[in-house]
Amino acid sequence: MRFGFHLASLPHHDLPRAVGPLAEMGYGDVVARVDAQCLPESNLAFARIDAWATRCKAVGVRLILDADGLFMTDLWDATAPRLARALENDARETLLRRCVDLAAALGSNLVVFSVGDCDASDDAEISVKRISLSLDRLMDHARAIGVTLMIKPVLGSAIETSTQFMRVLQWIESKNTASSILGWSADIGVMARRGEMPIGDRLSHDHRHLRMVTISDVRMGVAGDQRFGTGDLAIPRIVESLVAMSFSGPVILRVEGFGDAGLEVAREAIMIARRGEQSSA
User: Fold this and answer.
1) Does the chain have fewer CB atoms within 10 Å around its N or its C terminus?
2) Cα(116)–Cα(114) distance, integer angstroms
């Protein structure tokens, strides 16, 4: 199994330097959240994220881009434009296109993002069509430069379950033969908070379109991630389920909110996740 680590869990670290220790722990992927400092059209901005990519290549770790950074377009508003909203759709599509271009320039072939919540006045079909039309265009662009797109669920967004993703995908598949480059990125924490149980069965049901799985530990009734082993989830059993279904995509471990613990949270996470892998051996 290929474990990865989300670099948003290390907010106080020099990320290129942190990649080496992560590789030594056994991580094969890292996810970098693209923020406003990475996207401006300047050599300095590109050099910053290119340093991540260069270091990843040097230690044999794959770089995956998370396009859900904060303050991407507005200094006063942390929320990025939302693909599901009529007045923000074009801006979000342009932003995602730039992230896809950045991924290709860095030699990264995976970009993950959410679609945001929809306008309160929209019915479900209008939202599906709006999202699908944008994804249709983005897929054509991504396919041309060798990048795969992955939709991730966020609580409250227009796509927060695999069922909602499949509705959008069905619409796209009727129009676009490039639909294979669009996949689902499951988030175990979101599934748990939504009560999508048993998690192993739900993942198996979504196996055909599942490209990536992000695992975070959660405690019901408490916001945010928890350090692995301190929440309510049986992480090893979730990993066992992924092994049983022969899932070969990246399994990303995320522990946001504990930056002061540094690399120790990465060590804890992979040690606990590996118990499930070893139990299945």
Assistant:
1) C
2) 6
* Domain 2-279 in CATH 3.20.20.150: yes
And the tokens for 200?
């192993």
| Cα 190 to Cα 184: distance, rounded to the nearest angstrom | 13
Over the stretch 70-90, which tens digit does the pLDDT of each residue have? Answer: 877 777 888 778 888 878 888
Structure token pair of residue 71: 């303050």
Q: H or E element: which one contains 211? A: strand 210-215
Domain boundaries, the chain: 2-279
Tokens at residue 72, please?
């991407």
Helix/strand/coil percent split, the chain, to 5: 45, 15, 40
Residue 179 DSSP code: G
Weakest-pLDDT range from 5-14, 136-145, 193-202: 193-202
Three-state secondary structure readout of 30-89: EEEECCCCCCCCCHHHHHHHHHHHHHHHHHCCEEEEECCCCCCCECCECCCCCCCCCCCH
198 preceded by cis ω (within 30°)? yes
The predicted model scores a pTM of 0.92
Tokens of 268: 């804890």
Residue 113's DSSP bridge partners are 151
Q: What is the pLDDT of residues 151-163, one digit of tens each?
A: 998 888 888 888 8
| pLDDT tens profile 87-121 | 888 888 988 998 898 889 888 899 999 988 877 77
Among 17-31, 102-116, 200-214, which range has the highest average pLDDT?
17-31
- Burial (CB count within 10 angstroms: exposed 0-12, middle 13-18, buried 19+), residue 166: middle
- CA 209, 214, 218: angle at the middle one, nearest 5? 130
Q: Is the four-CA dihedral 156, 159, 162, 164 of positive or negative sign?
A: positive
